[in-house]
Design brief:
alpha+beta
Amino acid sequence: MNIERLRQLCLRKPGAIEETPFGPETLVFKVGGKIFALADIDLFNGVNLKCDPERAVELREEHGGITPGYHMNKRHWNTVSTDGSVKDLLIEELLAHSYALVVASLPKQVQASLQPEA
């Protein structure tokens, strides 16, 4: 996984935007004003993703490349290594999970605005 691929995946999500509120070195992806992913642009050795607390513990036990979220609430965030120790497919799945958790926490009206019209 590289930073451009992560960026593409994040920005494909409905309502997703990118910002650098913590300085030019940290790329932050938000939906509805809430963060669902963040990573160091220059180093890109990992990405912080929101995670269900029980699943977060399981993932950390199963994968050496998944650790408690760096500079984040360690109960709700994981840092997922992008050095190849965690497969890209799993990173993509965890990114989708993070986005879904954040969307589920948004007001119903905001959630509805993120759904494609039928």
